Amino acid sequence: MKPLLLLDVDGVLNPMGRPTPDFRRYRCTIGADVYTVHLNPRHGRRLLELALATGSELVWATTWEHHANDWIAPRIGLPSLPVITMGAPSSAGVPASEHGEMFKTPHVAAYAGQRPFVWFDDQVWAEDEEYLRVHQGLADFLLIHVDPRQGLTSRHLGMAHEWLTLTGFSQGS
Fold first, then answer.
1. Contact 37, 48 (CB under 8 A)
2. pLDDT of 36-75, one tens digit each?
3. Which of 5, 61, 93, 139 is deepest in the core (most CB within 10 A)?
4. Rounded Cα–Cα distance for residues 16 and 149 (Å)
Protein backbone atom coordinates (compact mmCIF):
# COMPACT_ATOMS: atom_id res chain seq x y z
CA MET A 1 0.00 0.00 0.00
CA LYS A 2 1.51 3.28 -1.13
CA PRO A 3 1.53 5.91 1.59
CA LEU A 4 -0.41 9.09 0.92
CA LEU A 5 0.81 12.69 1.06
CA LEU A 6 -2.31 14.78 1.68
CA LEU A 7 -2.19 18.46 0.70
CA ASP A 8 -4.26 21.39 1.83
CA VAL A 9 -4.13 24.63 -0.19
CA ASP A 10 -5.05 27.66 1.93
CA GLY A 11 -2.56 28.14 4.74
CA VAL A 12 -0.25 25.44 3.34
CA LEU A 13 0.50 26.17 -0.32
CA ASN A 14 -1.21 29.58 -0.17
CA PRO A 15 0.06 31.25 3.03
CA MET A 16 -2.18 33.74 4.80
CA GLY A 17 0.64 36.00 5.94
CA ARG A 18 2.75 38.28 3.80
CA PRO A 19 4.35 36.00 1.20
CA THR A 20 8.09 35.98 0.66
CA PRO A 21 9.51 37.04 -2.73
CA ASP A 22 9.60 33.43 -3.99
CA PHE A 23 5.78 33.39 -4.10
CA ARG A 24 3.81 34.60 -7.11
CA ARG A 25 0.37 36.18 -6.98
CA TYR A 26 -2.50 34.72 -9.03
CA ARG A 27 -6.17 35.52 -9.44
CA CYS A 28 -8.41 32.48 -9.72
CA THR A 29 -12.03 32.62 -10.85
CA ILE A 30 -14.36 29.87 -9.68
CA GLY A 31 -17.92 30.53 -10.75
CA ALA A 32 -18.70 34.10 -9.72
CA ASP A 33 -15.97 34.19 -7.06
CA VAL A 34 -12.47 35.59 -7.61
CA TYR A 35 -9.69 34.50 -5.26
CA THR A 36 -6.18 35.83 -4.90
CA VAL A 37 -3.61 33.17 -4.08
CA HIS A 38 0.12 33.33 -3.50
CA LEU A 39 1.96 30.23 -4.68
CA ASN A 40 5.59 29.18 -4.69
CA PRO A 41 6.38 27.48 -8.01
CA ARG A 42 9.09 25.38 -6.29
CA HIS A 43 6.56 23.65 -4.05
CA GLY A 44 5.43 21.36 -6.85
CA ARG A 45 8.92 20.08 -7.62
CA ARG A 46 9.69 19.59 -3.93
CA LEU A 47 6.45 17.69 -3.34
CA LEU A 48 7.06 15.50 -6.39
CA GLU A 49 10.59 14.78 -5.16
CA LEU A 50 9.21 13.80 -1.74
CA ALA A 51 6.61 11.52 -3.32
CA LEU A 52 9.22 9.89 -5.55
CA ALA A 53 11.77 9.48 -2.74
CA THR A 54 9.21 7.85 -0.43
CA GLY A 55 7.07 5.96 -2.95
CA SER A 56 4.06 8.02 -1.88
CA GLU A 57 1.00 9.30 -3.72
CA LEU A 58 0.10 13.01 -3.63
CA VAL A 59 -3.60 13.71 -3.00
CA TRP A 60 -5.55 16.95 -2.55
CA ALA A 61 -7.20 17.25 0.90
CA THR A 62 -8.61 20.73 0.46
CA THR A 63 -11.94 22.51 0.18
CA TRP A 64 -10.71 23.57 -3.28
CA GLU A 65 -11.39 19.93 -4.20
CA HIS A 66 -11.15 19.49 -8.02
CA HIS A 67 -10.52 23.21 -8.49
CA ALA A 68 -7.05 22.57 -7.04
CA ASN A 69 -6.22 20.62 -10.20
CA ASP A 70 -7.43 23.51 -12.37
CA TRP A 71 -5.95 26.46 -10.49
CA ILE A 72 -3.21 25.31 -8.11
CA ALA A 73 -1.47 22.28 -9.65
CA PRO A 74 -0.44 23.88 -12.98
CA ARG A 75 0.92 26.99 -11.24
CA ILE A 76 3.28 24.99 -9.02
CA GLY A 77 4.19 22.26 -11.49
CA LEU A 78 2.05 19.39 -10.21
CA PRO A 79 0.11 17.01 -12.42
CA SER A 80 -3.60 16.47 -11.84
CA LEU A 81 -3.94 14.70 -8.47
CA PRO A 82 -6.64 12.55 -6.86
CA VAL A 83 -9.04 14.57 -4.72
CA ILE A 84 -10.65 13.82 -1.36
CA THR A 85 -14.16 15.18 -1.69
CA MET A 86 -15.38 16.91 1.41
CA GLY A 87 -19.10 16.25 0.91
CA ALA A 88 -21.99 18.64 1.10
CA PRO A 89 -21.73 21.10 3.98
CA SER A 90 -24.38 21.21 6.67
CA SER A 91 -26.99 23.95 6.79
CA ALA A 92 -24.63 26.03 8.95
CA GLY A 93 -21.95 25.80 6.26
CA VAL A 94 -19.72 23.30 8.03
CA PRO A 95 -20.56 19.71 8.98
CA ALA A 96 -20.95 19.17 12.71
CA SER A 97 -17.91 17.91 14.58
CA GLU A 98 -18.45 14.78 16.65
CA HIS A 99 -15.42 15.01 18.91
CA GLY A 100 -13.83 18.40 18.22
CA GLU A 101 -12.14 17.32 15.00
CA MET A 102 -11.99 19.50 11.90
CA PHE A 103 -14.79 18.93 9.35
CA LYS A 104 -12.29 17.48 6.83
CA THR A 105 -10.98 14.79 9.19
CA PRO A 106 -13.75 12.17 8.70
CA HIS A 107 -13.41 12.55 4.91
CA VAL A 108 -9.65 12.03 5.15
CA ALA A 109 -10.17 8.94 7.32
CA ALA A 110 -12.66 7.46 4.84
CA TYR A 111 -10.35 8.11 1.88
CA ALA A 112 -7.15 6.86 3.51
CA GLY A 113 -8.67 3.67 4.89
CA GLN A 114 -5.76 1.56 6.13
CA ARG A 115 -3.14 3.34 4.02
CA PRO A 116 -0.46 5.23 5.95
CA PHE A 117 -0.51 8.97 5.33
CA VAL A 118 1.09 12.31 6.04
CA TRP A 119 -1.34 15.23 6.11
CA PHE A 120 -0.09 18.80 5.61
CA ASP A 121 -2.76 21.19 6.92
CA ASP A 122 -2.93 24.41 8.91
CA GLN A 123 -5.99 23.27 10.86
CA VAL A 124 -5.01 19.84 12.21
CA TRP A 125 -4.80 19.64 15.98
CA ALA A 126 -4.79 17.11 18.82
CA GLU A 127 -8.56 16.58 18.38
CA ASP A 128 -7.98 15.45 14.80
CA GLU A 129 -5.26 13.03 15.86
CA GLU A 130 -7.46 11.63 18.62
CA TYR A 131 -10.41 11.25 16.24
CA LEU A 132 -8.28 9.38 13.72
CA ARG A 133 -6.66 7.09 16.28
CA VAL A 134 -9.54 6.45 18.68
CA HIS A 135 -12.67 6.82 16.61
CA GLN A 136 -11.37 5.54 13.29
CA GLY A 137 -8.77 3.07 14.56
CA LEU A 138 -6.04 4.48 12.31
CA ALA A 139 -2.54 4.26 13.74
CA ASP A 140 -0.21 4.92 10.83
CA PHE A 141 -0.32 8.61 10.04
CA LEU A 142 1.48 11.85 10.71
CA LEU A 143 -0.35 15.15 10.98
CA ILE A 144 1.90 18.07 10.13
CA HIS A 145 0.50 21.37 11.33
CA VAL A 146 1.64 24.15 8.99
CA ASP A 147 1.72 27.74 10.27
CA PRO A 148 -0.79 29.43 7.95
CA ARG A 149 1.17 32.69 7.99
CA GLN A 150 4.24 31.04 6.43
CA GLY A 151 2.91 28.01 4.59
CA LEU A 152 4.79 24.85 3.68
CA THR A 153 8.53 24.87 4.43
CA SER A 154 11.51 22.58 3.93
CA ARG A 155 11.16 21.60 7.60
CA HIS A 156 7.67 20.22 6.98
CA LEU A 157 8.85 18.24 3.97
CA GLY A 158 11.78 16.92 6.00
CA MET A 159 9.45 15.79 8.79
CA ALA A 160 7.35 13.85 6.28
CA HIS A 161 10.39 12.26 4.65
CA GLU A 162 11.87 11.26 8.00
CA TRP A 163 8.61 9.77 9.30
CA LEU A 164 7.94 7.79 6.12
CA THR A 165 11.52 6.51 6.06
CA LEU A 166 11.85 5.68 9.79
CA THR A 167 8.48 3.97 10.00
CA GLY A 168 9.28 1.79 7.02
CA PHE A 169 6.43 3.12 4.87
CA SER A 170 8.81 4.66 2.39
CA GLN A 171 8.88 2.52 -0.73
CA GLY A 172 11.55 4.64 -2.36
CA SER A 173 14.29 4.32 0.27
1. no
2. 999 999 999 999 999 999 999 999 999 999 999 999 999 9
3. 61
4. 5
Cα angle: 40, vertex 67, 117; to 5 degrees: 70
Reading across the β-sheet that carries 57-60, which strands appear in turn?
A: 57-60, 4-7, 117-121, 141-145
d(CA 173, CA 165): 7
Residue 40: name the closest of 151, 160, 168 by CA. 151
Task: Report DSSP letters for 67-134, one per residue.
Answer: HIIIIIHHHHT-----B-------TTSSPPPSSS--TTHHHHHHHHTTS-EEEEESS--HHHHHIIII
